[in-house]
């Protein structure tokens, strides 16, 4: 009997913590990251354009030797290597590359795929990997290239973790509470808005409330929507429609950027991970539960 009781208790505990399963590695990518690697398919030469990041990933899966894909998601175009200006003709270009995958169990956050652009430089590229047994993620913010502080604050009943960011009404500064681990400037510090963001492809994350409906708000890229969320007080989830043919079968949703609220520690996909073609979601500068 005691064994049964313990089992029952365990079962109850498990059912109370209804956490969504971790997203499969196949839907995880990083926005605002061009990636290094030996070129397997030159998108310029091959005219490889793909309608979505997921299609670029599939094209990598279908191509022998490819384990890194780089896709131009920004509607305004992407910055080619060695240049500083956006090239509109690169929109939807899909580059396929190979890079040596990390050793099993190695600490790899932010190191594979190897970023080609600095974290605070916007290039419009999004990238991901098809390497086996590996889940991608954006790097932790580091001193030197972004805010030199990590902020933790509470708002609207939620804990916000991650790097500091512009907050509306505070101008170009980080808002940092006393919880900030490094607050050497009295809580305010210059901060680059552009950062790499971990994203979930073809996924619409569920919300408890909507802060800014995408019906009235657009973004040029996933990192743009991610940044809008970071600079909106109380936002901790965002969802952006990347597909020019529309999302949810509705063409006008293209570029919509929804700023939302939900438990950032336990994001729940509305139709399962990968079940909402065209939508790209992220958790606001908060570590994804992976
Ligand atoms: C990848 O291969 C599958 C099966 O052969 C095919 O259905 C799909 O269209 C291919 N995708 C791309 C992007 O080439
Ligand atoms: C991936 O993990 C599985 C199970 O742990 C293992 O059998 C396989 O060899 C791994 N693949 C690679 C490429 O490391
Ligand atoms: C989405 O969130 C709402 C409000 O918290 C909840 O009622 C609903 O069951 C959730 N749906 C899914 C699919 O998680």
TrEMBL record:
The keyword Signal applies. The keyword Signal applies. It comes from the Eukaryota. Residues 1-21 form the signal peptide. InterPro entries: Pan_app (IPR003609). PANTHER family: EXPRESSED PROTEIN. This is Apple domain-containing protein. It comes from Volvox carteri f. nagariensis. The lineage of its organism: Eukaryota, Viridiplantae, Chlorophyta, core chlorophytes, Chlorophyceae.
């Amino acid at each position: 009997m005691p064994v049964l009781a313990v089992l029952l208790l365990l079962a109850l505990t498990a059912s109370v913590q209804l956490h969504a399963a971790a997203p499969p590695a196949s839907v995880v990518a990083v926005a605002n990251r061009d990636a290094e690697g030996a070129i397997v398919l030159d998108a310029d030469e091959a005219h490889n354009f793909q309608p979505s990041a997921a299609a670029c990933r599939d094209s990598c899966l279908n191509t022998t030797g490819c384990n890194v894909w780089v896709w131009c998601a920004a509607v305004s175009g992407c910055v080619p290597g060695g240049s500083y200006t956006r090239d509109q003709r690169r929109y939807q270009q899909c580059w396929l590359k190979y890079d040596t995958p990390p050793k099993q169990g190695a600490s790899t956050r932010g190191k594979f795929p190897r970023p080609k652009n600095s974290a605070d430089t916007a290039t419009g590229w999004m990238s991901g990997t098809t390497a086996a047994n590996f889940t991608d993620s954006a790097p932790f913010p580091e001193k030197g290239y972004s805010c030199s502080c990590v902020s933790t604050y509470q708002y609207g009943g939620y804990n916000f973790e991650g790097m500091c960011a512009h907050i509306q009404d505070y101008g170009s500064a980080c808002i940092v509470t006393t919880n900030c681990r490094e607050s050497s400037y009295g809580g305010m510090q210059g901060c680059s808005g552009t950062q790499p963001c971990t994203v979930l492809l073809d996924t619409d994350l569920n919300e408890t409330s909507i802060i800014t409906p995408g019906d009235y708000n657009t973004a040029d890229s996933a990192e743009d929507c991610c940044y809008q969320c970071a600079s909106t007080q109380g936002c901790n989830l965002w969802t952006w429609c990347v597909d020019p043919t529309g999302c949810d079968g509705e063409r006008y949703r293209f570029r919509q950027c929804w700023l939302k609220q939900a438990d950032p520690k336990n994001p729940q996909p509305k139709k399962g991970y990968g079940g909402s073609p065209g939508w790209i979601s992220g958790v606001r500068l908060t570590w994804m539960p992976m």
